[in-house]
Each structure stands twice: as structure tokens, then as C-alpha cells.
Hints:
mainly alpha; 6 helices; globular
Amino acid sequence: MPAMTKKAMSKREFEALSHFRYQLRRFLRFSESATRRRGVTHLQYLLLLHLKGYPGREWATVGELAERLQAHHHGVVALVSRCEKLELVRREPGRHDRREVEVHLTPKGEKLVDGLARLHRDELLTLQGIFTVPGAEELAPRGRPDQRAEDL
Length: 152
């Protein structure tokens, strides 16, 4: 974390922070609306996204998901249970440690997260130029960087 200075912030710095938070909130509101239209909560979508996007594999443990979601372990257990009731995920005993639980996407969960992630990718790409989107090159659909999911 950068060291805090005692120097007073300028009006321009406040405006930049305000603009960033405004654009971030707009994106989050878009996400909440998009997920609600698909019949899930934004937290359920985030759980599915973190499963699909977990580095190096397509499943994660409850503890790993708790870290990704920045949530308490017991809260993620409840979230996984709700997603399991919707047939979006399934639990399996840990491969190396039977005390751990692996969470995997079901085909229904795969289909849902794919559609929602495409919508989110497109919305995120519209924010280019408003604030820097890390990894925007990796988010662009194959082919043209300016191509949107509905054009594919």
C-alpha cells in the first residue's frame, strides 16, 4: 500500500476519485440488473464467475471462493448451497484433502455464467477511456478488439 502523504488533496483529485467511483457504481448497477434479469443474484453470478475463472482449473474450494468474494467462509457455504439448489454448482470431496470441498459448475451453471460474462465483458469494454481497464486486451473478443459479444 502506498504511503499516505499529509499534503491536502486537490479539487482535481477529488473529482477523479468521484468520477471513478461513479463509473464503478454504474458498472455494479448494470451487473445487479443483468443478473436479476437472468434469475440470480449478483453474488451468485460472482461465485459462478470465480469458479469459471479460477486460475489453472475450473473448480475451487469454499475457502478459495471466500477469498475471491472477500466473504466469510460460512457465508460462502450458504451461497454455494443456494447455487446447488438452483443446480448451478455441485460439491465434490477434496481430491487431496477429504476435509475440503471442491465446488464445480454444472452444465446449467456453465451456460448461465457464459451468457452473463459476455454481457459484463461488453459493458466493461465500454468503460475504456473513462478509466483504465486492466487486461482489456484479453477481454476483447477474438478477431477485433472493438467487436462486442452480440456481433459474434
